[in-house]
Amino acid sequence: MRLREPLIIPFASVAAGIAMGQTLMLPRLETVYAAAALGILGALAIPRNRALALSAACCALVFAGMALVRDPVPAPVLSVPDKVTVILEGCVVDPALTAADRERFTVELAPGARAQVVLFAKNDGDFPDLPYGTRVEFPGKVRSPHNYNNPGSFDAVHFFARQRIYWNVSGDAAGIKKLPGRCGNAVSRVIFGIRSAALRRLDELYAKDAYTNGMMQAVLIGATVKLERLWTEDYRSTGTFHALVISGSHVAVLAAVFLFFLRILAVPRAMALGATIVVAWLYTGITGWQAPVLRSAAGMTLYALGRVFFRDGRLLNILAAVALIFIVADPEQLFDASFQLSFLAVAIIGAFVVPVLERTSGPLARALTDMDQAGKDVRLDPRAAQFRLELRLLGSAVGAIFPVVAAARVALYVWEIFVTSFFIQIGLALPMVVYFHRLSLSGLSANAIVVPVLTAVVPLGFMAIVANSHLLASLCASLLALSRWAVGVHARWEPDWRIPAPPFWLGALLVTALVAAAIRGRRPWLRTAAISAAAIALGVMVVHPFAPVVLANHLELAAIDVGQGDSLLAVFPNGKLMLIDAGGIPTFGRAHKSNLNIGEDVVSPYLWTRSIKRLDVVAMTHAHEDHMGGMSAVLKNFRPRELWTGAVQASPEWEEVRDTAERLHITIRQMRKMEPFPFGGARIEVLAPDADYEAGAAPKNDDSLVMRIEFGANSILLTGDMEKKIEEKLYAEGALQHSDILKVGHHGSRTSSTGDLLDAVHPAFAVISAGFENSYGHPHPLTLAALEQRRIAFYRTDELGLVRLVSDGKRIQNPVMPKLFGPETR
What backbone phi and psi angles, to 5 degrees, belong to 720? Predict the structure, then answer.
């Protein structure tokens, strides 16, 4: 491998240097000197000791990689605070896209300083047409991006900063004023003009089919504004989501079709190849320069240049060259999930899939050409010659050779997809578990259907756009329906387990074993040992026999930062786990729901960072969306034994949660006021709702399940969104006792946490779960003043992120605020 793919070594060396540079943070000048010195040493050693020269060169590249690591660039700042409405002026650099009740675009306020804008139309008003290069002025409320500050959370601030987006702006569509003149550059204006025209054509072709329109825009162009998360869930669970999103394979398919037509038209090979590369880069621009497409276009260009100079295009060598170019240009890409998955997938194909196919179906596929020329048989290996002979005999039996050959080609194609899917599933198992906590079994057969179907959709979809063909558009809709049916069938028997991230040593073992298995020319027993080690490591990773990260014989309350909502993890002394509420984003009756699911995207990742696979109990205090919006996802991901609820009433949101619980055989217990009972080495007392409490037609804060947990000399009062009426009732009954920790009711609203409650409970610590700069003004200044007046130490998730309070039964430890942010994924 060292001689056949020589660029793998430089890429690996530079990548190792970048990874070390992120950790060690050595002075750049020193690393440059070290790289130069080692490079000179390597050059001097070439004539005498090639091994020393290679080692010195690799070390030089490692130090060069360390020198590439850059200091973070300070984010630009506006002269106004967040949540203030200001007049903004700038250039539209990402054209406006409209979905449901909103329009979204990106505006550049100054060079390198952009804002993502969302416009709303009042009274069903129209949205303005804002193509690339439009100069605009409009009033908008500005907010800086903010993270959910929990371990394992997606670092949205850094993600947007890499796109030079530093603010979110919301405004009224009627306030947009187009200014005279143009901005931006002419090339981008043309490319985005083509993109906008294609999107308009899809809107016309699928005017009455929102699903197909949204899917086609996402599959062909990467525009996801009309894509609903619900439509893609089955693709995610069956491991076929990669076929749905824009990727390098789209470039390959379009390039192959375009090159095929050019060759049919007798265009010279060199000219056809050049035109294909131009089309590949044009498509890259149309998709908005998305990274996977950009990398694929770069790899295709390198391959074409190699062909011009009569060089063999080795897959792994081209892959290493493209990866090296990209990480030198932007070292942070090395840590990007998209970069890792893209290059790992191609590396797996080159290291495992190609050799396997060369030994199995490759000779048979080549044997299917020129079937009428029997003289060709003697030039093939015996297995391929026998295959041709048997196909001819079968063709004679059915009276035609063409259908037999066609069936053989289909069978070999399915085999190739199966082999490719199998090895990619194995090779990408580690990043899929680390980033998405998923590993699919049904993907092996689902990909055999979905990949060819969606591959066909790409060229057919663009033909429909160019020709404005309703016939081709209907054919694409039928193919999408077939794909949807296939993933739906597979999703019904897919276990859909979710796996916490493995320990570092296990991931390192799996990677080492896969690399060792990929190296060719080694002794067979060594490869067998490497494959066995990889299989064992993968099995352990899937089973995940590792205990949750908890403190034994301690009671812990962790307030998870879910924005404007509640989600609390209670860890009991004997290790039992209870989640109280699962956060959520209120829709306020709007039909369009956010594609962000708090239960799936915020609460679950935190639990997985603590190696939690199962919960014992999930408690839903009441049926408001900011407490129960993520509940269904949590139930599916952690399969608790019981679901405890406060007072609930019929509503679509509750019915979804109830149906999920019943489908998963989770016992639903509607909790009412009762005597204390033992649980998990502690005692729980339910204080509200009363046995005779009747829920109204709509959910109310006073429906909340209120619990007091007692462990040794310490106790915790969990209030949900309980308000003044229930607080006064409990106070009058004498039910409010001293508790060391108070979960402040209703996010610190002035309608909760009355003086009587605070005086009766007299907590040492209070936890307030509220959203960063939320529109409700929570926590209310009067509530904070009441806490300060009584010298109660309070901790706010909107300021601190995750807050953990731990009791050993005698005293409460100070809040633990762990290191934040995990890898960038979504």
Answer: 60, -130
pLDDT in tens, 230-247: 888 889 888 888 888 877
Q: What span, in angstroms and rounded, lies between the C-alpha atoms of 73 and 495?
A: 44
> How far is residue 550's CA from residue 576's CA, in Å, rounded to a whole number?
10
Do residues 405 and 371 touch, judged by C-beta distance below 8 A?
A: yes
- What is the spatial distance between Cα 397 and Cα 260, in angstroms, rounded to a whole number? 34
Do 499 and 439 touch, CB atoms closer than 8 A? yes
User: Can you read off the two tokens belonging to residue 107?
Assistant: 């505006």
Burial of 718 (0-12, 13-18, 19+ CB in 10 A): buried
> For 675-695, what is each residue's pLDDT tens digit?
999 999 999 999 999 988 988
Residue-wise pLDDT for 777-795, tens only, equals 999 999 999 999 999 999 9
Angle between helix axes 382-398 and 402-427 (nearest 10 degrees) is 130
> Is 598 within 8 Å of 583 (Cβ atoms)?
yes
How far is CA 673 from each of CA 227, 578, 687, 706, 728, rounded to the nearest angstrom? 44, 19, 5, 9, 16
Residue 563 DSSP class: S
Tokens encoding 720: 């949900």
d(CA 800, CA 468) in angstroms, rounded, equals 54
Strand order in the sheet with 803-807: 667-670, 642-645, 617-620, 577-580, 568-571, 555-559, 803-807
The pair of structure tokens assigned to 292 is 């996977």
Give the Cα separation of 348 and 324 in Å (integer).
17
Asked if 563 contacts 583 with a C-beta cutoff of 8 angstroms, the reply is yes
Residue 820's pLDDT band, with cuts at 50, 70 and 90, is very low
Q: Is the peptide bond before 331 cis (omega within 30 degrees of 0)?
A: no
Answer yes or no: are the C-beta atoms of 561 and 150 closer than 8 Å. yes
Question: How far is the C-alpha of 364 from the C-alpha of 357, rounded, in Å?
Answer: 10
Distance CA 191, CA 180 (A): 21
DSSP string, 316-353: HHHHHHHHHHHHHH-GGGGG-HHHHHHHHHHHHIIIII
Give tens-digit pLDDT for 133-158.
Answer: 999 999 999 999 999 999 988 999 99
DSSP characters over 620-671: E--S-HHHHTTHHHHHHHH--SEEEESS----HHHHHHHHHHHHTTPEEEE-
Burial label, 495 (beta-carbon count in 10 A; 0-12, 13-18, 19+): exposed
Write the single-letter amino acid at 739: S
The separation between the first and the last C-alpha atoms of the chain, rounded to the nearest angstrom, is 35
- Give residue 308's pLDDT band: very low, low, confident or very high (50, 70, 90): low
- Tokens encoding 789: 């007046």
Any idea what DSSP says for residue 747?
G
What are the counts of helices (DSSP H) followed by strands (DSSP E) for the chain?
A: 30, 20
Q: Three-state SS for 111?
A: coil
How is residue 342 written in tokens? Answer: 């893209």
Distance between CA 396 and CA 400 in Å, rounded? 6
DSSP code for 125: P
Q: What is the pLDDT of residue 309?
A: 63
Average pLDDT value for the chain: 89
Measured in degrees and rounded to the nearest 5, phi and psi for residue 795 equal -130, 125
DSSP string, 1-35: -TTTSTTHHHHHHHHHHHHHHHHH---HHHHHHHH
The answer to whether 82 and 142 are in contact (CB under 8 A) is yes
Distance CA 686, CA 721 (A): 15
Dist. CA 15–CA 812, nearest whole Å: 45
Contact by Cβ (8 Å): 779, 787? no
Residue 534's CB: how many other CB atoms inside 10 A?
Answer: 22
